[in-house]
Amino acid sequence: MIDMHAHYLSPSVLREASAGSVPVGLAPGGRSFLFPSGPSRPVPPPLCDLADRLHWMDERAIERQILAPWMDITGDDLPPDAAAAWCRTMNDSCAADIGDEPRFGALAALPVVDGEAAARELVRSVEQLGFCGGAIPTQVGGRDLDMAGLEPLWEAAGSLGTLLFMHPFRVLGGDRLKVHFLNNVCGNPFETTLAALRLYFARTFTGWPDLRILLAHGGGVLPMLAGRAAHASRHAPGFDRAVDDPDSILQCFYYDTILHDPRALTLLMNAVDPARIAAGTDYPFPMIIDRPTDHVRQAADQAGLPEDALRRILSGTAQELLHSRASR
What does 110-133 look like in DSSP terms, one character per residue? Predict the structure, then answer.
């Protein structure tokens, strides 16, 4: 299995923040970063430990893991120059930690406050650091992705043929989601769904047909709502295009398998081609899928998928997504 949804932070970033040599400082206690909009959540120690991670992977027969930044700390509220320097620090330190270890790949932190800077950092990270692509949030400091000036990033990602992994951080819902971990349980999938539909109806994939975006958390509720969105486009005001088939929306994206219920994952498998689904774990956070292969296999059995489709979800889709033009 290839794990397409996992997170990592180099411990050297904590040291540099403590020393004051990067644009982001640390709160008292040394585990939370200080951003203009407030402190981050404390950094969990497993986020920074590659040795324990390899042991965990061995126990679960995970062949390779693709390390994405922790979206909470990518700095979408920093000034553009500071954001670029901060993301560069995270990417350089991640690349140094991985070294020649073949079982890890990485997705770049991108300074999405500036579309041109984000594009430059994606190109640098892929071409110079050997990264597999980049990670993007579902909004940029309150601006939706289709209104955030990210066209240069779409152009760069499409030209490279490389992956962009969309993962929420800031979520809609405000105070209503502050109990029962609902900001994560509900907020994250709602955010992903909203961002995906806004990109689709903004004709992002018409302008950049080679763009490959992997949606976290099974695409949120997009597989359930794509038909509703298609119907609305034909019968409700506010649309400049009519969508005849929900597949027109669903087939624009890729999806991970982090749904926590094989029945929900079965719905995703029935809605989209296995070639658009890639296994993930969310390591090392509380919503981790601890036995990911079992999770995927159980859902595949319920969906009646053949063995080759199961293999596609466990590794084949990931191999395709990780094979950028820059590496050919």
Answer: --TTSHHHHHHHHHHHHHTT---E
The alpha-helical segments, DSSP class H, found in the chain are 11-19, 50-59, 80-98, 115-127, 151-160, 182, 188-201, 204-207, 222-235, 247-250, 262-271, 292-303, 307-311, 317-321
What is the dihedral angle through the alpha carbons of 109, 112, 115, 121, rounded to the nearest 10 degrees? -20
Q: Which two tokens stand for residue 319?
A: 């191999």
pLDDT tens profile 239-251: 998 999 999 999 9
Over residues 286-300, mean pLDDT: 96
Radius of gyration of the CA atoms of the chain, in A: 19
CB 204 within 8 A of CB 150: no
pLDDT in tens, 200-257: 999 999 999 999 999 999 999 999 999 999 999 999 998 998 999 999 999 999 999 9
Closest CA to 212 of 279, 283, 275: 275
- Please state whether the predicted TM-score (pTM) of the whole model is above 0.85: yes
> At 107, phi and psi to the nearest 5?
-110, 135
DSSP state of 312: I
Which pLDDT belongs to residue 86?
Answer: 98
CA distance 84 to 308: 42
Largest separation between any pair of C-alpha atoms in the chain:
58
Query: What is the DSSP secondary-structure string of 167-231?
Result: ---S-TTGGGGSSTTHIIIIIHHHHHHHHHHHHHHTTHHHH-TT-EEEESGGGTTHHHHHHHHHH
Separation CA 157–CA 212 (nearest Å):
8
